[in-house]
Amino acid sequence: MSMLLLVGVQLYAPWLVREMIAAVTGTPAAADALETVARLALIALAVFVARGVLRFLRSYMAHVAGWNVVADVRADIYAHLQRLSLRFYEDKQTGQLMSRTINDSELLENLIAHAVPDVTVNVLMLVGVVLVLVSMNWQLALLSMIPMPLIYFAMQGFS
Fold this sequence. Notes:
- The structure is a single chain.
- The chain is an all-alpha fold and about 160 residues long.
- The chain contains five helices and no strands.
- The chain has helices at about 1-25, 30-85, 95-135, 140-145, 150-159.
- Helix 3 crosses helix 4.
- It is elongated.
């Protein structure tokens, strides 16, 4: 949920800047423009504070989930190691088994706490930006998407 709110807040910030620029460069009365810019500046401040809080919540919840998964995986590995026969341990070193259990499960925490939330937020941002572009000017949005296949094929060629 915090990821969806974070994407919404991040998409709202550029709109605020656009409105500020429109208020400053437009031709309304000077007092009205100053009042509008002040109101939008307070809203922008609230948006940036909300973005920071939501980023913290996303990171905190992802790390809690990651460490819970790591604890469960380590418990399952320990239970599995307890069920193995003594013959399995004849050619294995204790340090090797411990290293595998600890290091590999920490890689899983990195995946859950960093990679999955980052990919999710980035995909949601891409969808949100496309929706905002289409809602503002669908012709310009389509024009801006023309290079996408070229970028994709270039990335495939260089990787």
